[in-house]
Design goal:
Rossmann fold, 6-stranded mixed beta sheet, 3-stranded antiparallel beta sheet, 6 helices, 9 strands, globular
């Protein structure tokens, strides 16, 4: 991990609050979250279902608005941006792996992966060439032209991961990226994610229940009841 105080934090959250609903139906998803993610770091978020992990990822990625508190990504606060600027900044700097994959069913695997490049102005032919090469790296070299319906859950997950990586974003956020993968494929994907996303001006945040990949983390942040309750530096500390 490379820490750079000169460049500040990759992700900076202070007293972050996010609620859903009103009155008797109001649910507090984030209840004063404080979190720093350093440049060059792979940080994992763990905790029970419903504790706010996915909501935190979505706020950090600019997909959800926070109610209050501070949140910035490489020094930029989505709240200070207009809708168009927010979309552009997110499209250029953030890759998101959704737990539900969110692949477009009418597009091939390569076309799904190429979307971020095309949205950023890369010519379609070049975008598809890069998508084919990345799908080869994640073990789908013979499935580039297949629709998502012809792929298994694990193969769709690898397509979603490739889509998040293809535009070389500064921050990648992943929601359970290895949940549908076998041990060997999961480790290979994690190695690729580290290679692409972890550098002096980059970072990777992963929500996971998969203890098999804890060893890839620089730090592990544990959440409960909408808060970060502790941060540890190794998987062994999780059991202490």
């Amino acid at each position: 991990m490379v820490r750079s105080t000169a460049n500040g934090d990759a992700v900076f959250c202070r007293d972050l609050v996010k609620t859903y609903g009103k009155g008797d139906t109001r649910v507090v998803a984030l209840n004063g979250v404080n979190l720093d993610v350093h440049p060059g770091e792979l940080l994992m978020l763990v905790g029970p279902s419903g504790c706010g992990k996915t909501t935190l990822l979505c706020v950090v990625a600019g997909i959800l608005n926070r109610d209050s508190g501070q949140c910035s990504v490489f020094g930029r606060d989505f709240r200070s941006m207009g809708r168009r600027e927010r979309s552009r900044y997110r499209g250029e700097n953030i890759g998101f792996v959704f737990q539900s994959f969110n692949l477009i069913p009418t597009l091939s695997a390569a076309e799904n992966v190429a979307i971020p490049l095309i949205l950023n102005g890369v010519a379609r032919r070049e975008a598809l060439r890069r998508a084919d090469a990345l799908l080869e790296k994640v073990g789908l070299g013979r499935r580039q032209r297949d629709l998502p319906s012809r792929l298994s859950g694990g193969q769709q997950q690898r397509v979603a991961i490739a889509r998040a990586m293809i535009h070389n974003p500064r921050l990648i956020v992943c929601d359970e990226p290895t949940s549908a993968l076998d041990h060997e494929t999961g480790h290979h994907v994690m190695e690729l994610l580290r290679e692409v996303a972890v550098g002096p001006d980059r970072a990777l945040v992963i929500v996971t229940h998969d203890a098999r990949i804890f060893g890839f983390a620089d730090r592990i942040a544990q959440m409960d009841d909408g808060r970060i309750v502790r941060v540890v530096n190794s998987p062994a500390e999780m059991s202490s």
